[in-house]
Amino acid sequence: MNPVKGTLSIVSHGHAALIYNLLDDLAGQTGITEWLIIVTINIPEEFKPLDGLNLRLVRNDVPKGFAANHNTAAVMAEGKLFLIINPDIRLAQSDTLERIAAADWNGPSPALRAPVVVAPNGAIEDSVRANLSAPNLLRRMLHRIPGWEANPDGAGFFWLAGMFLIAPLATFRAIGGFDERFRMYCEDYDLSARWQVQGGRAEVLHDVRVIHDARRDSHGSWRHLRWHIRSLVRVWRSRVFWRIVVRRYP
C-alpha cells in the first residue's frame, strides 16, 4: 500500500450514529484510500467499521478526555497531515480532503489550519475566535453574534475551535500535541496559542467548507462546567496567554 497523505482522528463518546454519517461522507471522498482514519471508541458502545475505508479502530478500557484521545491517535498516525474532526461534522464537498492536501504545507513556518465551518442552515459558525480573555468571554456570553469573532485575514491574534483542525503531523508531535491538563473547550485554544507563540501561524482554508451539526451534549452538566472553569483559570495563569495579551510572540 502506498504511504497515506494523512490521518483523520475521530473520537466517539457514544456518538456511533453520527460517526457512521461522517464515514459515509468520507467514503465518497476523492482519494479516500490515501488517508488513514482512526476512530476511538471512548465509552462502551456497538460500532462496526465500514468496508472500503482504511480505518483503524481503538477501544478505550478507561474513558479519556479530548486531548488524551487525539494525542494517542497522533502517536499511531501516518502521513504528513493530522486532522482532528468532531463526530458531528459533515462534509459537503466530495473533494474536501483533496483541497486540504493541495494547500501549501511546506512554508517557512508551519500552519495550523481549519476549514470554514457552517451550521446546517449555511450560517458561518464562530470557529475563528478572539483571545480567550475574561472581557472577550463575557462579551461572547452576553452578545451571541453569529459568525467569526476575529478576522482570520487580519493582523491580530485568533484561535481555531477544535471541531475541525488540520495540523502538519510532525509539528503537532514536536510541540507536544494537546495539553492534557485542559478540559472542555480550552484544549484547542491552548494548542492554537502555543502554535503561534512558537513561531507557527493559524489560517482558515477559505475554499474548504464543512457542516457542523452541533449537539453540545456537555451543556447543562455541572461536572463539565467545573472542568471548563478550572481550565479557564489555568489558561489565564499560563505564560502563553499573557504573551499573547502583551503581544510578545512572532
Structure description:
The chain is of the alpha/beta class and 250 residues long. Helix content is 31%, strand content 22%. The strands form three sheets. A five-stranded mixed β-sheet has the order 3-2-1-4-9. Helix 6 crosses helix 8.
Write a concise keyword list for the protein shown above.
five-stranded mixed β-sheet, alpha/beta, globular, 250 residues, 31% helix, 8 helices, three-stranded mixed β-sheet
How would you sum up this structure in a few lines?
This protein is an alpha/beta fold. The chain has eight helices and ten strands.
Ordered list of secondary-structure elements with their pairings:
Layout: E1 6-12, H1 16-27, E2 35-41, E3 55-59, H2 66-76, E4 81-85, E5 89-91, H3 96-102, E6 111-118, E7 128-129, H4 134-142, E8 159-160, E9 164-168, H5 169-174, H6 187-197, E10 201-212, H7 222-236, H8 239-245
Parallel strand pairs: 1-2, 1-4, 2-3, 6-10
Antiparallel strand pairs: 4-9, 5-10, 7-8
Helix pairs in contact: 6-8
